[in-house]
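dumping this here so i dont lose it again. seq + smiles for zinc ion
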Amino acid sequence: MLDAPAFTAFPLDRAEALRRDADAVASLAARPDARVAALWRLKPLVGDQDGALTPAYFPRSRLDPASLQSKVVVEVFLGLDAAGAPVFAVALDPALEPPPDFAALVMGGESTPDVRFVELREAAATMHAGEASILATARALFAWHEAHGFCPKCGAPSVSTLGGWKRVCSVEGTEHFPRVDPVVIMLITRDEQALLGRGVTWPEGRFSCLAGFVEPGETAEDAARREAQEETGILLGEVGFLMSQPWPFPSQLMLGLHAQALSEAIIVDPHELAEARWASRAEVEAMLAGKHPSLRGPPPFAVAYHLLRWWVSRPSE
Ligand SMILES: [Zn+2]
């Protein structure tokens, strides 16, 4: 069994059929067990629990006062939890300065010294995977809403509908859906070695798998072959799927692939990579454990970590 990378254990029933009915969504929002996660400038409101960060949900009813409603830019219905309770998320007006009283207000005046807005990337390192995936969904949706306030066809304002899962042009009625951008990330191996690359902006010693965006008209397999050749000159043979990970910065879906290299000589494209190298199983194992003298690998919440760990933990080819 593979351990899951961050953002991959979404625990809610998305209840897609309910989104289509605005009255049903309003009824869900009015339920006493409805709860809300808040994001401000795409940062979720979180608290501490036993040394880990956890979303600071609050009852949906706390948003009722007009004074708070006016601070909400967009609201999305994320789904129903295991007990059937509705879960929503709100994006707070980014123009607000960090509202120091907001947390206390929505938490019902309870003492909440540790409740704060943090970068999701930072929170994901310690947050329960399922909770992180709820916030990841909200973050990806809000980033899309933020960038799509106007119809991309005619420029008229667009309106959020379907519980926040669609925008409709206010003039022509054209429909616009949240985007997901596929990225291939490749575990490339050859003769008991794996290919590692260091991005041009990454610090010395920091390595990961090669990755790149899938282009229009391209299969994931073709994208993997093209990216590997462009970035390192390595030719790939067979390419297979291993696992995927939503990556809400802002809206990627990382497609984790395993590819066999057909060639070995590395020619780095300096626009794409600072360096690339082959590493043995022992080196990768030490790198993932944080025990390699010079190589530092991807963090455990990244899919690259799990691709590499899958490789070092399986029998030799
Ligand atoms: Zn339009």
